Amino acid sequence: MAINKPYTDPSELAPIIPLFPLEGALLLPRCQLPLNVFEPRYVAMIDAALAGNRLIGIIQTALDQPALAVPGAPEIVAVGCVGRITEIAESGDGRYLLNLSGIARFKVVAEVDSGTPFRQAKVDYEPFRADFTPNAGAEAVDRGTLLRTLADYLDANRLEADWKSIKDAPNEALVNALAMMAPFGPREKQALLEAPSLASRAEMLIAVTQMTMARTGGEGDGTLQ
Description:
Blueprint: E1 16-21, E2 32-37, H1 40-51, E3 55-59, E4 79-90, E5 96-112, E6 120-124, H2 143-156, H3 163-168, H4 171-181, H5 186-194, H6 198-216
Parallel strand pairs: 1-3
Antiparallel strand pairs: 1-6, 2-5, 3-4, 4-5, 5-6
Helix pairs in contact: 2-6, 4-6, 5-6
């Protein structure tokens, strides 16, 4: 098995993957999510992933929307994103420090009784086939409005940014990075994940940011009521 493996089609991904439920977490295709793993069941999950295909599904615990009932475990939402372990280090005290590289979103079909301390599920990537094509729909992003909204937010909160890097970033990288870094709550993060296109994710990011600033007098608090 290749260690550095690109994925170009849903058929190339495992149909059953381990799940890492994380409230408020967001992983998107071709983005990086750093993780500090210390719970024994998730350390076991990392060990199993390293011995196999290195795939882990990041998914949120249930919001106020239909979710999958799991006896004896927190409910989870129906859509997550699978990532591949691309960097990992041992902390020396039993923890793993790692980076997941996002590949594609998935829909949970059903959880499986795997006999492992961590949860696993059968998943379907087909509804998100476009995730396998870099920059799909990037030309439809309203980049100007997105950058103006970002500038307003940073100014209102007295924050600095590397504008050269922001302006040089392609639309997909810009939208997805901002979505992952945005200080929004779990509901907004899940909506950004499930956005049907890159342009709609950008529109949602703009709308949530503007509404947050309007409600808080300019400063963002990361959530919507």
